Amino acid sequence: MPPIPSPAVAAAGLVGGYAVARWSGKRPLGGVVLLGAGGVAAYEWQRVGGAKVAAGLGAAYLAGFAGSHPLAKKIGAWPAVFSVAGAVAAASWAVTRDKG
């Protein structure tokens, strides 16, 4: 099986989760997108880097989600979501680029 691009999946989960929640008006539906993409990314992080890498990047993913809320009050919702998605994708790439 070819490697799954975990940085892209993680970023898409954060952006897509917010987009679905916003445009559908149903926050739980956005949570399903966020959780699904997070699960796929975590699987790949664990496959290429082991449990510690998966736990660390999973924590960064959750921190990005949580951190986007107060950041949105300062810079706006979409800029906050794109900022944290970029940060999580960059962290994922930095940690997993030479593995897998």
Describe the overall structure.
This protein has helices at 6-24, 27-49, 51-75, 77-96. It is mostly helical. The mean pLDDT is 95. The chain is built from 4 helices and no strands.
Key structural traits:
single chain; 100 residues; mainly alpha; 4 helices; 87% helix
Query: What would the average pLDDT be, to the nearest integer?
Result: 95
Secondary-structure element sequence? HHHH
E-strand count = 0
State the low-pLDDT regions, or none: none
Give a short account of the largest sheet: none
The helix/strand class is: mainly alpha
**Radius of gyration (Å):** 13 Å
| Helicity, as a percent range | over 70%
From the N-terminal CA to the C-terminal CA, the straight-line distance is 11 Å
Quick one: overall form? Answer: globular
Strand content: under 5%
Number of helices: 4
What is this entry, summarized?
The protein is mainly alpha-helical and 100 residues long. The chain is 87% helix and 0% strand. The longest helix has 25 residues, at 51-75.
